Amino acid sequence: SEARRLYLAAVELQPDNARLLNNLGAAEDQLGMDRFAALHLNEALRLEPDLHVARNNLGIVHVHRGDPKRAEALFREIIRKDPRFHRAYYNLGVLQASQGKLGAARDSLRTAWRLAPTDAAVRYNLGLIARERGAGAARERRAYEEALQLDGELGEAHLALGSLLADPATPADMRDELQARVHLERFLELALASDDEGRAQARSWLRWLDSRSR
Questions:
Q1: Mind listing the pLDDT tens digit for each residue in 183-207?
Q2: How many other C-beta atoms can be found within 10 angstroms of the C-beta atom of residue 8?
Q3: pLDDT over 90 (residue 212)
Q4: Which of 41, 64, 62, 68 is nearest to 52 (CA)?
Q5: Backbone angles phi, psi at 168, to 5 degrees
Q6: Does residue 210 contact residue 180 with C-beta atoms inside 8 Å?
């Protein structure tokens, strides 16, 4: 909310600054203000048609609006114009995974990873794809651990790794209840206030681990 207030003030002073409009739209999208976000991002693109970050953010707005076709078209337009813009591949891969297109999602995310091998979110999502494709717990765990080496504050990776290490379905030689607890508690420290589902999942696993130690 504070970021939006500051960007609105800045845009008032520089109404033709496409990058300020992009930042304003991104903040509004995070606040769930999709109508305002789309308005400001489209204005940014009118002023600067090759501002791919604005087109990428507009694609994310359409994902949040439940319009995956429009979102995919925007991500693919970026890729066509700038094949090295890795966040377009990343967002396309996440969108494809949500639609159950796991092979295509893996390919998009692998391209993003080749272009940006230090992007922890890409590596984390490759772990999710490995899980969905049944690639094995070892590959999944490695992806989460590598993501956390790149960004130790990536809460989603702490939750995923903690859940994997606690899960009785994980092969016995890979389970680690002590480390599971560490990662689950770390997730709770990092979780956004709006992530009710994630916090509920982490607390459920922690209660289960507590019951095991009695």
A1: 999 999 999 887 899 999 999 999 9
A2: 15
A3: no
A4: 41
A5: -65, -15
A6: no
Query: What is the overall mean pLDDT for the chain?
Result: 96
Question: Contact, 105 vs 91, CB < 8 A?
Answer: no
Of 15, 44, 17, 12, which Cα lies nearest the Cα of 29?
44
Tokens of 199: 């916090």
The model's pLDDT over 79-124, given as tens digits with 9 standing for 90+, comes to: 999 999 999 999 999 999 999 999 999 999 999 999 999 999 999 9
Q: What is the DSSP string of the chain?
A: -HHHHHHHHHHHH-TT-HHHHHHHHHHHHHTT-HHHHHHHHHHHHHH-TT-HHHHHHHHHHHHHTT-HHHHHHHHHHHHHH-TT-HHHHHHHHHHHHHTT-HHHHHHHHHHHHHH-TT-HHHHHHHHHHHHHTT--HHHHHHHHHHHHHH-TT-HHHHHHHHHHHH-TTS-GGG--HHHHHHHHHHHHHH--TT-HHHHHHHHHHHHHHHHHH-
Cβ-defined contacts of 99-103 (< 8 Å, 24+): 99/68, 102/129, 102/132, 102/133, 103/133
Amino acid at 140: E
Which residues lie below 8 Å from residue 197, measured CB to CB, with a gap of 6+? none
- C-alpha closest to that of 101 among 90, 93, 91, 110: 93
Single pTM value for the model: 0.89
